[in-house]
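lol forgot to send this yesterday, sorry. struct tokens for the thing we talked abt
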């Protein structure tokens, strides 16, 4: 127990470290997946803008599609900091969840454009 707060001090166990490393690998793989989508995103963006799609909307969609590595990197940084401040469970969640949420939203967007827009990058023109 700590003298300041009267609460028991949290310990970082071996299992928590292994879990954080596995979550970090998952987030890094998600970031690499995001880098892999960049060329296709750029080609789809330029094609949609040339066919008359709204350039502001397309820029927002492009930024979302290209945000994966940055989201994964921020999650890794924040998660490791939180982990070493004696919050191992929250640290693992911060490492893995932002990248997982981005990948889920990306896959949902891809499903929506394939199901409702006949594969066009936007449902517009």
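and heres what i got for the seq, position by position
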């Amino acid at each position: 127990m700590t003298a300041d707060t009267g609460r028991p001090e949290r310990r970082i166990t071996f299992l928590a470290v292994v879990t954080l490393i596995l979550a970090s690998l998952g987030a890094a793989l998600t970031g690499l997946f995001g880098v892999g989508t960049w060329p296709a995103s750029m080609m789809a963006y330029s094609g949609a803008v040339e066919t008359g799609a709204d350039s502001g909307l397309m820029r927002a969609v492009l930024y979302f599609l290209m945000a994966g590595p940055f989201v994964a990197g921020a999650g890794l940084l924040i998660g490791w900091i939180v982990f070493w401040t004696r919050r191992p469970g929250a640290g693992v969640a911060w490492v893995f969840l932002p990248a997982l949420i981005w990948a889920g939203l990306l896959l949902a967007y891809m499903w929506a454009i394939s199901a409702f827009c006949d594969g066009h990058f936007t449902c517009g023109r």
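Residues 88-116 form the longest helix (29 residues). anyway ping me if u want another try
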